[in-house]
Amino acid sequence: MTNVETLVTPDMEEAKGVWSGSRASLPVSESDIRRWAIAVYWPDTPPKLFWDVEYAQSTRWGGIVAPREFNPFAWPVSRPQVPPQGAQPGQKPTKGQNILNGGMTDTYGVPMRPGDVISTRSRLSHWEERQGRHGLTLYSYNETEWTNQDNEWVKTRIGTLIRY
Questions:
Q1: SS3 104
Q2: What is the per-residue pLDDT for 87?
Q3: Rounded CA gap, 164 and 159, in Å?
Q4: Residue 147 phi/psi, 5° resolution?
Q5: Among 49, 53, 107, 153, which is 20 to 30 Å from 21 by CA?
Q6: pLDDT 10s digits, 116-138
Q7: How far apart are CA 34 and CA 101, in angstroms?
Q8: Considering the entire predicted model, what is its pTM?
Q9: Residue 1 neighbours by CB distance under 10 Å
């Protein structure tokens, strides 16, 4: 039997494809949407769709909607404790403890609206291992899904974490 080197842990094998428990946002308000849009478009005026009720009612959306990048979890709500990952300060990293953010890809469904309560869940979708210039490198892909109170799909984010 050959001893195959891998950065995949037994915890990863166990977690692959398993959705986390769901958590819900506070209800989205018009004020939340307006303030988010002002911050995102500053110093320019944000599109009227995000703050002008009369204008927004005349659009195909029939009312105010949130910018696609709006995050209803940005406000203080209870958050699960996440243990630190990778090498800790003053500690020399071992193989697999060097961690890089490999980026994120978002896809969008229905827009968020005032009154929506957004639920989120996530899972370790899959991973790939390959040889890189630093040796064996692990690319893990975490999927986060958002839905509204009507169970309509709002957004999916695939985040890539790189370990070597």
A1: strand
A2: 59
A3: 17
A4: -135, 160
A5: 107
A6: 999 999 999 999 999 988 889 99
A7: 30
A8: 0.81
A9: 3
